[in-house]
Amino acid sequence: MIPQMASKRLRKILFTIALLAIFCLFIKWNFAGICILCLKKSEVTSFKRDSGNFLELPHIDCSKSPPFLVILVTSSHNQNKERMAIRETWGKEKLIFNKLITTCFLLGTTPKPDDQIAISTENVKYGDIIQKDFIDAYYNLTLKTMMGIEWVHKFCPQSSFVMKTDSDVFVNTYYLTELLLRKKRSTRFFTGFLKLNERPIRQALSKWHVSKEEYPANTYPPFCSGTGYVFSTDVASQVYNISENVLFVKLEDVFIGLCLAELNVKLEELHSKQTFFPERLEFSPCRFKKIVTSHFVKPHELLIYWNALERSMDEKCPR
Ligand SMILES: *[C@@H]1O[C@H](CO)[C@@H](O)[C@H](O)[C@H]1NC(C)=O
Ligand SMILES: *[C@@H]1O[C@H](CO)[C@@H](O)[C@H](O)[C@H]1NC(C)=O
């Protein structure tokens, strides 16, 4: 009787230990998984310009019809819904105050040939894709953004302004155009949600982790949140030109900030009131009439917000 009970208890203990071990293994594996991502060989190197040819180009002739504003949207092959929603809403090519606004998507590549066929087919249909051959990964966002800037420099220097944003952002192109026209700036202009006193995050588990080897200094230069920044097109060429001499940082908005510091281009507010929101704002037509960006918007929400915004264009809002 007694030895049997003891063995039962022993089994229970062993079972608990086994569970704990599995739990720990899982956690450890998970940590390792994250760390493989974040501690990848950090190279203190400068950015490599002109790496590779464009695989896809948008069907836009900037010399014939120069856009007032080119909007570059970071995207990936599986974000069809997001791209379609943007094409039907703020990304629809159109004239605003008689100024041409045009939108392009920035994509990298995946190892699957089917994905490439899908992207090429999509570009035949919509003609709004810019793509180069680099692996589409979060930590390649700097490559993706610089590809867009290279495209503007080489194919669309006739445009007046460039915006870089993400596929989960609501952009009020009407208000942005109005504010850019009012601002009357044409060169060395850079605006967005200003981040003036940011520091590198050294915690290994953060998505924005940057090691001392990658970026030794304790502060970042002023930069604008990657969720949406806007600059005069001359800045694109200058950033493209200087990028070779700038430390490569995988956080694209910080990298652009480093380029701007090198170029001595100062960040400016577009309006005395905040208009760029790196966070999510609750939607109301009156509120969204007076903003430029709001983050974390799903494709179906984009359609609802945009329709409501366009319907209420002529309605008065409380000041
Ligand atoms: C970025 O793209 C390059 C070129 O395809 C690739 O070698 C590298 O592994 C990619 N980086 C990440 C973090 O996937
Ligand atoms: C490009 O950058 C170099 C320095 O790296 C500078 O001497 C040159 O003037 C720049 N050219 C343009 C067109 O900005």
Automatic annotation (TrEMBL):
| Swiss-Prot/TrEMBL keywords | Glycoprotein, Glycosyltransferase, Golgi apparatus, Lipid metabolism, Membrane, Signal-anchor, Transferase, Transmembrane, Transmembrane helix
Enzyme Commission number: 2.4.1.-
The catalysed reaction is: a globoside Gb4Cer (d18:1(4E)) + UDP-alpha-D-galactose = a globoside GalGb4Cer (d18:1(4E)) + UDP + H(+)
Q: Give the primary localization class.
A: Golgi
The GO biological-process annotations, alphabetized, read as:
lipid metabolic process; protein O-linked glycosylation
Pathway stated in the Swiss-Prot or TrEMBL entry: Protein modification; protein glycosylation
Subcellular location(s): the record lists:
Golgi apparatus membrane
| Topological type in the membrane | Single-pass type II membrane protein
The GO terms describing molecular function are:
N-acetyl-beta-D-glucosaminide beta-(1,3)-galactosyltransferase activity
Q: What's in the GO CC field?
A: endoplasmic reticulum; Golgi membrane
Please state which protein family the record places this protein in.
Belongs to the glycosyltransferase 31 family.
Question: Could you identify this protein by its name?
Answer: Hexosyltransferase
Which lineage? Eukaryota, Metazoa, Chordata, Craniata, Vertebrata
